[in-house]
Write a structure and sequence with these properties.
Elements (H helix, E strand, L loop, with lengths): L18 E2 L6 E2 L10 H11 L1 H25 L5 E5 H6 L9 E4 L5 E5 L2 E5 L4 E6 L18
Antiparallel strand pairs: 1-2, 3-7, 4-5, 5-6, 6-7
């Protein structure tokens, strides 16, 4: 006799029961709890389910990265700051509505940041672009209870 630990219970569908794949609607054979006919259909179903959320996140991330690359372009290598006209940033496709965070200085000035680059409006449509030194303690990401470890 086989010990109970090593016994596996297989779930097979009843012969008269016809279940269909949730993606392609082909008839499924095999386990009773099987929902998809193959891995491709399972993956396609899950990708389609989260497409709208991922699409929005992907578009916003694209705009944020594009803004960062534009700011980096105007800093030209190792220069810590650069002064540029607002129209020049707009001409490159910079989207002023998209930034990762703001930084407030002690004297009340507000910088708009795109990851490790920031800009502040000076006067007459003139902007000052600078790099922000990333600190490890400011990059703390809190535990997400929904995340699988």
């Amino acid at each position: 006799m086989i010990p109970a630990i090593f016994m596996r219970k297989k779930f097979f569908a009843m012969p008269n029961e016809q279940r269909k794949c949730l993606t392609c609607e082909r008839i499924i054979h095999g386990r009773v709890d099987k929902k998809f006919c193959n891995d491709y259909c399972r993956s396609a179903f899950n990708n389609k389910k989260h497409l709208s959320d991922r699409g929005l996140i992907r578009r916003v991330n694209y705009l944020l990265l594009k803004n960062r690359y534009i700011l980096e372009y105007f800093l030209k290598g190792s220069h810590p700051t650069a002064t540029i006209m607002r129209k020049a940033l707009s001409a490159k496709g910079f989207q002023f509505d998209f930034f990762t965070h703001t930084y407030h200085t002690a004297d009340g000035k507000q910088y708009f940041c795109c990851y490790d680059h920031a800009y502040i409006e000076l006067f007459n449509e003139e902007l000052l672009i600078t790099r922000i030194a990333a600190r490890a303690e400011s990059l703390f990401i809190p535990y997400n209870e929904f995340e699988q470890v």
